C-alpha cells in the first residue's frame, strides 16, 4: 500500500482530447472507429451518453472546465483569443490548495499562454494558434517560439522543424496527409511521453492531479501512416445530411481546406474522415500506453480517471465542418469515468443518460478528491449518476432538466436548449428556428419546426430559452419573446478588457 492509499486520497487523472465527436467510440456503436482502450474504460466504468459542450469551441469550453461555471458566468460565449484569464477559483488551484501536486501537459489555450491557472507546472503545447503565430503585433513573450514546449522539444530532435511543415492549417477539416516524422515525435506521443516522465518526477508524498490535454484529433489531420492504413479500405459511411441542410455551393466554398461548410469532393472528404478516425485510434493507443505506465508505477488502482473532449467535429454532417454550431457532431461529446480502485462504487459497464456538461468536471473531480466545492461553481458532481444504488432505491437521482448552450459566431450565432431527447435552436441574428426530436431522429435529419404535431413541444422549449436569456446584456428577450438582430460579442462585458 502506498502513502496515498493510506491517506485515502486518490490521484486524479483528467484526459481531454480536442475536437472528438461523441459517437467515435466502438462501444458507442460506431461502425468504423476502433477505440479498444477507451472501450475498456467505459466497460469497467460508466459512459455518459448525453454529455455536451455548451459553448463548443476551445476557449469557452476550457473556461467551463477550469471554473465549473456556465458560459453566462465565466463570460466566454464565443471564441476570442487574447482576453486575459483572471479567474480566482480554478480546478487545479483548488486541488493544489488541498495538497495535490498539480500538473498540466499539453493544451491549455488560456491567455497569457503561460498562465498557470492554479497548476504547479505546465508543459505546454497549444497546437497551432493563429494569434500567437503572427510575427506582427505579438509580444515576443507570447510568440509560439517562446511559449510552446513541444516545439522546443521537437527542434532538439528535428532541427528546423515547425508546426506547419505538413502544409496543413489548424482548421483544415477537409484535407489530410500522414505524419512526416517518426511516430514518437508526434504531439500525441509527446503528451504521453511527458506524462510518463511526470510519474517519475512527481512528489511521492502527495496525491497528484494530472491533466493530459491532447491537441488531436483537432486538425491538422496528420495521423502516423500505420494508423491511416487501418482505415484505408474501411467502409466509411457518408455523413448524414438533413432535409434542412444547404445543398447549394455556387461559391465553391467546399473546395477551401479550412471551410466551415460546402460540398467537398467525395474522395477528399473520405480521406479526411479516415484520417480523423486514425487520429482517434492513435490517441486511444497512446492513452493505453499511459495507463500501462500508471499501473507499473503502482498508481492505477489509486487513480480516479475521467475522459472527455472540449467539443466535437461536424466532419461533413449536413455539409458542415469544424465546430461552434449546436448540432450533435459539434456540441455532443464523449464522457467516460473510471475508478479502478472502487472508491466511488461505480455501477460498472453502465450508460448514464442524464444531460451533463463540461462545467460538471470541476465539481466532480473535487468531490472525488474529497475537496470542498467552492460556491462559485455552478456545475454538479456526476458521481451520484454513476454510482451503484441499492436495489430497493428505485428513485432516480435529482438532476438538471435541460442544458442551455450558445455560441457567438457572426450571422451563424446560436442559442439552444436540449434535454438530450429534444433540441430547440434559435439563430439570434436571423431569427431562424429549428427543432429536432433526437429520440426519433438522432442524426437531426428533419427540422420539425413547422410540424403541427410538435407545436406544443416547440413552444415549451422556446419559453425555456426565453427564461434562460432574461437579463442578458445583449437584450435577446423582453421576457415574452425572442428578439433577433441584437449585437453580440464573444465575451460578455464583465470580463472584457
From TrEMBL:
Record-linked InterPro entries: Alkaline_phosphatase_core_sf (IPR017850), Sulfatase_CS (IPR024607), Sulfatase_N (IPR000917)
Domain Sulfatase N-terminal: from-to ranges: 10-371
GO CC list: cytoplasm
Protein name: Arylsulfatase
GO function term, MF aspect, one: metal ion binding
Similarity field: Belongs to the sulfatase family.
Organism superkingdom: Bacteria
SUPFAM superfamilies: Alkaline phosphatase-like
Hydrolase recorded as keyword: yes
Organism: Paenibacillus rhizosphaerae
Amino acid at each position: 500500500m502506498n502513502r496515498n492509499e493510506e491517506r485515502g486520497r486518490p490521484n486524479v487523472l483528467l484526459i481531454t482530447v480536442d475536437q472528438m465527436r461523441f459517437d467515435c467510440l466502438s462501444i458507442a456503436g460506431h461502425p468504423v472507429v476502433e477505440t479498444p482502450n477507451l472501450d475498456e474504460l467505459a466497460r469497467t466504468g460508466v459512459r455518459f451518453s448525453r454529455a455536451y459542450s455548451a459553448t463548443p469551441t476551445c476557449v469557452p469550453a476550457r473556461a467551463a472546465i477550469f471554473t465549473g461555471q456556465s458560459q453566462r458566468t465565466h463570460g466566454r460565449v464565443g471564441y476570442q483569443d487574447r482576453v486575459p484569464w483572471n479567474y480566482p477559483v480554478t480546478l487545479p488551484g483548488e486541488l493544489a490548495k488541498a495538497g495535490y501536486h498539480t500538473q498540466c501537459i499539453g493544451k491549455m489555450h488560456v491567455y497569457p499562454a503561460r498562465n498557470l491557472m492554479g497548476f504547479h507546472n505546465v508543459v505546454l503545447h497549444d497546437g497551432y494558434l493563429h494569434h500567437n503565430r503572427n510575427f506582427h503585433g505579438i509580444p515576443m513573450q507570447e510568440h509560439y517560439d517562446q511559449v510552446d514546449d513541444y516545439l522546443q522539444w521537437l527542434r532538439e530532435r528535428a532541427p528546423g522543424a515547425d508546426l506547419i511543415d505538413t502544409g496543413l492549417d489548424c482548421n483544415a477539416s477537409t484535407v489530410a496527409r500522414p505524419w512526416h516524422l517518426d511516430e514518437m515525435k508526434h504531439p500525441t506521443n509527446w503528451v504521453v511521453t511527458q506524462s510518463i516522465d511526470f510519474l517519475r518526477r512527481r512528489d511521492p508524498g502527495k496525491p497528484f492531479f494530472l491533466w493530459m490535454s491532447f491537441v488531436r484529433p483537432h486538425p491538422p489531420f496528420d495521423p502516423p501512416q500505420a494508423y491511416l492504413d487501418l482505415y484505408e479500405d474501411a467502409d466509411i459511411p457518408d455523413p448524414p445530411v438533413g432535409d434542412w441542410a444547404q445543398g447549394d455551393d455556387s461559391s465553391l466554398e467546399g473546395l477551401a481546406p479550412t471551410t466551415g461548410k460546402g460540398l467537398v469532393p467525395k474522395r477528399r472528404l473520405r480521406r479526411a474522415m479516415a484520417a480523423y478516425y486514425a487520429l482517434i485510434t492513435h490517441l486511444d493507443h497512446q492513452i493505453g500506453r499511459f495507463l500501462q505506465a500508471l499501473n507499473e508505477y503502482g498508481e492505477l488502482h489509486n487513480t480516479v480517471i475521467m475522459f472527455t473532449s472540449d467539443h466535437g467535429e461536424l466532419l461533413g454532417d449536413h455539409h458542415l465542418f469544424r465546430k461552434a454550431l449546436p448540432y450533435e457532431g459539434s456540441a455532443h461529446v464523449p464522457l467516460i469515468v473510471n475508478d479502478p480502485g472502487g472508491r466511488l462504487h461505480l455501477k460498472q459497464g453502465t450508460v448514464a443518460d442524464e444531460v451533463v456538461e463540461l462545467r460538471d468536471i470541476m465539481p466532480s473531480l473535487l468531490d472525488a478528491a474529497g475537496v470542498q466545492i467552492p460556491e462559485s461553481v455552478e456545475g454538479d458532481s456526476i458521481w451520484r449518476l454513476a454510482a451503484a444504488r441499492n436495489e430497493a432505491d428505485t428513485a432516480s437521482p435529482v438532476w438538471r432538466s435541460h442544458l442551455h448552450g450558445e455560441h457567438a459566431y457572426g450571422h451563424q450565432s446560436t442559442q439552444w436548449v436540449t434535454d438530450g431527447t429534444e433540441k430547440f435552436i434559435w439563430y439570434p441574428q436571423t431569427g431562424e428556428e429549428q427543432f429536432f426530436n433526437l429520440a426519433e431522429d438522432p442524426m437531426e435529419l428533419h427540422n420539425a419546426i413547422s410540424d403541427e404535431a410538435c407545436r406544443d413541444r416547440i413552444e415549451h422549449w422556446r419559453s425555456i430559452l426565453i427564461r434562460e436569456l432574461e437579463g442578458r446584456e445583449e437584450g435577446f428577450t423582453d421576457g415574452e419573446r425572442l428578439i433577433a438582430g441584437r449585437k453580440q460579442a464573444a465575451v460578455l462585458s464583465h470580463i472584457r478588457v
